[in-house]
Amino acid sequence: MSTNVKKVTLQKPSLEEVAKILNDGLGKHFEHASVSVVDCPDLTQSPFHLAAPGLGGQTAIADVGGPPYLVPLVQRDKKYSFEQVASLVADKTSENAFLIGASAGPFHLVGQNCELMPNVLLKRGDSGVFEVVENNTHFSKVNEKDEYSLSKISASEFGLLGNMFVSEGKPCKVLKVEARKRTGADNFVTAMRNVLREHYQQTPVSLGGSFLVATGKAKLHIMPDFSTKPLLSDDDVNNWLRFFEMDSPLVCLSVFHSLDPQLDLRIEHTHCFSDHNQGGHYHYDTTPQDVSYLGYFNLASAIVRIDAPKETHGIGRD
Ligand SMILES: [Zn+2]
Q1: pLDDT value at position 44?
Q2: Which CATH number fits the domain that encloses residue 256?
Q3: C-beta of residue 195 within 8 angstroms of C-beta of residue 275
Q4: Residue 316 lies in a domain
């Protein structure tokens, strides 16, 4: 395969150290915040509905493609698959690859641009090639009348850009993050990211996992079909995107990095799905008084940058 792939191994701190730093730091962002190290609950169960029970085994964050393939104008040749990501990211000894996160949808299969919530378990078959064995991936799309829908999708493809936490889906110790009543301006993920950035400074620490917006409401966007006129600024992108307030509980699949080690990363990316026909790209909760979050996260041992755009820009990364 000729795809351009770059791998950076990370110096992982201990989960206990990260838990203490987040526990101490999130108090500046939420009235109540508590972070501890626990055995990962079975995340295949309600309310999470993930494709594998845990976030353990070999871990990495895959950053595939990027916004430059979407704006100013779509590049329709930029299509990827979960099998491809698994084969590029998984350790040679790994039997499983469990992918969760946020990506653009397989526009060529759905028939229009859309949001994807990758949530898929692959196993290495006898031939050594990864095959999907469990897929609870959802996508959301919106039409010209601003009517949106959320559906499951059995395909294993996505388009343009994707940010995924890759593990082996095994039981493990994880960070349990609980936060209630937001008092700061940052969203839940940005708050954690900034706390880690402040502590670790120039050393990148990268996390992935799943969290619930358990109570309250949140602002999400859904990309409409591709713009036919070039999107040249963040204002252009925000006028093109469709924004909605959606209801809890939302299951969010998230990756974030305290720092970009010059890989042209999406520094944070979170997509949400639900059992009530709502889902999309998470921006922030709109009900700081009523919001509560519950998340489980693990540390990534590596960042794998796949097919980074040669010509890049900072538009459309919020
Ligand atoms: Zn997104």
Answers
A1: 98
A2: 3.30.1330.80
A3: no
A4: no
What distance in angstroms lies between residue 281's CA and the mean position of ligand 1's atoms?
Answer: 5
Distance 5 CA to ligand 1 centre (A): 22
Residue 218's domain spans which residues?
A: 5-306
Q: Two tokens at 161?
A: 């850009």
pLDDT of residue 2: 57
Average model confidence (pLDDT) across the chain: 97
Task: Give the Å distance between the CA of 282 and the centre of ligand 1.
Answer: 7
CA of 128 to the centre of ligand 1 (A): 31
- Give the pLDDT band (50/70/90) at residue 165: very high
Q: 15 near 299, Cβ under 8 Å? A: yes
Q: What is the pTM of this model?
A: 0.97
| First CA to last CA distance, the chain | 31
Q: How far is the CA of 223 from the centre of ligand 1 (A)?
A: 8
Mean pLDDT of 5-9: 97
Number of domains observed in the structure of the chain: 1
Distance from the CA of 127 to the center of ligand 1, in angstroms?
Answer: 34
Instruction: Identify whether 313 is part of a domain.
Output: no
93 assigned to some structural domain = yes
Specify if 318 maps to a domain: no
Task: Enumerate the β-bridge partners of residue 269.
Answer: 255
